[in-house]
Amino acid sequence: MTVLLPPSETKREGGDAARTLDLGALSFPELSDERAAVITAARSVSSEESTARTALKLGPRSVSERLRNLELDTAPTLPAIERYTGVLYDPLDAPGADDTTRRWWSDHVVVQSAMFGPIGAGDHIPAYRLSHDSRLGALRLAGHWPGPSARALARRAAGLVLDLRSEGYRALGPVPEAVTLRVVSVDGGGRRRALNHWNKTAKGRLTALLARTGADVGDTAGLLRWAGEHGVVVERTDDGWDLVAESLEPVHV
C-alpha cells in the first residue's frame, strides 16, 4: 500500500543542523536532476523580494519565506512528515509518534512536493517556500514534474495506491489507477456534500489511523475490510470513492 499526501504551505522551523539536504539520499534518487533544476529556479526567483512576491505568491507577512529557498543547501532538516504542519498534518502528531508508527509512515507514505517531487515520509528536507502553482520563469512545474514523478511512483507503487493529494498536486505526479477519496459530510437526511477545508483534517485523521493500526492493505477489498473493522466509512460510488468525514472523529484516531 502507498498513501500519497500533498505537502503543506506551513512548515515547522528548525531541525537537525548537522544533517543538511542531500538530494541523493532522498527517496526516488532518479529524480535528483529534476530536483536540482527546481532548486536552481526557485533560488533565482527568490533572490529579490520583488520577483519572489509574484513568483511565490507572497504577501507582506510571508515575504520573508523567500529566504528559505536561498538556504536550502545549508539549512537544518527534518523528516518530511514532521516538516509539514497544518490541518492535514496536525492530526498525525508526528513529533510525538512512536517508532512503530514512524516505520509505517516510512514504508507507506509519499508526499508530493513542488520543490522535490515525490519524497518519502522519512526523507530529511529543509523548510522551503514553493507551491504547485508557483511561477519559476522558464521552468514550469506543470510541465517539469508530471512525467518523471509518474514514472518514479509507478516503479515504487505495489498494490493499492491511496491518493489523498489535492488536485494541483495530483497533476504533478499522475497515478491513474489510484483510489482517490472524495471527503464528504452526511446530514441527517442522508444527503452528502463534498467538503473543502475540513477534507484535509479527515485525510490527516485517516492517515493517522492507518499508521497507528499498522494497516496491511493490498487492494480495494482490503481497504474496505480495514475501514469496516475501524468504523471508517469508505464507499465506492458511481464516480469514485467517498470517505465520510464524520466516521473519523478524533475518538477513532
TrEMBL record:
InterPro entries: YaaA. PANTHER family: PEROXIDE STRESS RESISTANCE PROTEIN YAAA (PTHR30283:SF4), PEROXIDE STRESS RESPONSE PROTEIN YAAA (PTHR30283). It comes from Curtobacterium oceanosedimentum. It comes from the Bacteria. This is Peroxide stress protein YaaA. It holds the Pfam family H2O2_YaaD.
